[in-house]
């Protein structure tokens, strides 16, 4: 459990111009500057925020871990002493050619603290992206707590967030491009994942029009009891909340869900 009792978090709910990397990064960093000016130390962005799902030009959109998106996020994080969580299209050479992954990244004070490759690509994504093969929390050594990162479709799999919680995550983070008309599903599941795991949950979604879909936003920050602390509408916006990670211990003592699991049955 955390050595830092609380942290002010911000969700950067932004529209994305598909395949327009430079414009998206500039917008994201401008919104990030507003967030840190308001005191935020933990910044969460939508899934593949710098390109969207740029299928038609995926080779140009894909990057290595030293690519433009991660490099610029690291620079901002170092200058502003903050944590940034996002995903990008990763390309990696293999024996069969180029492989692509939806790579979740957590940057702390200018350094990549950890990565997570999306393990559950959704529908068309399977034609372009390989699946990750590991689910694990990401440790933030300077802040002494851990992030349980999942990506979009994985919100529908309670096993993912439960494994992240069992492995000691202090905060659950979901980054997404959850499209219309699934707003009621998004809201229900983001709250449920917090309640069932008794963990704070930051869920950041895309907003606006894409090449193939439109996006409703609805980014949300939920506490360990399932109380909605902040929630966005369907416009570009920042939402903020102070996350009390130490409260998890008290809540799990009061309602011992984890102790009462029947691991002999499930």
Automatic annotation (TrEMBL):
Domain CN hydrolase residue range list: 7-245
Gene3D superfamilies: Carbon-nitrogen hydrolase (3.60.110.10)
MF terms (GO), sorted A to Z: hydrolase activity
The keyword Hydrolase appears for this protein: yes
A Pfam family reported for this protein in Swiss-Prot or TrEMBL: CN_hydrolase
PROSITE patterns: CN_HYDROLASE
Keyword annotations of the record: Hydrolase
Signal peptide segment: none
SUPFAM superfamilies to which the protein is assigned, alphabetical: Carbon-nitrogen hydrolase
InterPro entries: C-N_Hydrolase, C-N_Hydrolase_sf
UniProt keyword annotation of Hydrolase present: yes
Protein name: Carbon-nitrogen family hydrolase
Organism: Methanolobus vulcani
Taxonomic lineage of the native organism: Archaea, Methanobacteriati, Methanobacteriota, Stenosarchaea group, Methanomicrobia
């Amino acid at each position: 459990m955390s050595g830092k009792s609380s942290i002010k978090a911000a969700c950067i709910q932004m529209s994305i111009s598909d395949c327009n990397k430079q414009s998206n990064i500039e917008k994201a960093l401008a919104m990030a500057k507003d967030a840190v000016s308001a005191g935020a130390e933990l910044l969460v962005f939508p899934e593949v925020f710098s390109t969207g799902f740029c299928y038609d030009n995926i080779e140009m959109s894909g990057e290595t871990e030293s690519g433009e998106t991660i490099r610029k996020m690291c620079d901002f994080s170092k200058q502003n002493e903050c944590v940034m969580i996002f995903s990008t299209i990763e390309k990696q050479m293999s024996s069969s050619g180029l492989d692509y992954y939806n790579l979740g990244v957590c940057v702390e004070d200018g350094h990549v603290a950890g990565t997570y490759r999306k393990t559950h690509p959704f529908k068309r994504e399977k034609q372009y992206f390989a699946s990750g093969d590991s689910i694990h929390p990401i440790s933030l050594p300077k802040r002494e707590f851990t992030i349980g990162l999942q990506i979009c479709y994985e919100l529908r799999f309670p096993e993912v967030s439960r494994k992240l919680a069992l492995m000691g995550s202090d905060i659950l983070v979901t980054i997404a491009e959850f499209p219309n008309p699934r707003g009621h599903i998004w809201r229900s599941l983001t709250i449920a994942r917090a309640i069932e795991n008794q963990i704070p949950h930051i869920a950041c979604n895309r907003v606006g029009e894409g090449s193939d879909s439109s996006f409703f936003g609805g980014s949300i920050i939920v506490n360990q009891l399932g109380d909605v602390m902040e929630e966005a509408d369907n416009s570009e916006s920042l939402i903020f909340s102070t996350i009390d990670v130490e409260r998890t211990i008290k809540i799990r003592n009061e309602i011992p869900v984890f102790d009462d699991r029947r691991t002999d049955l499930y």
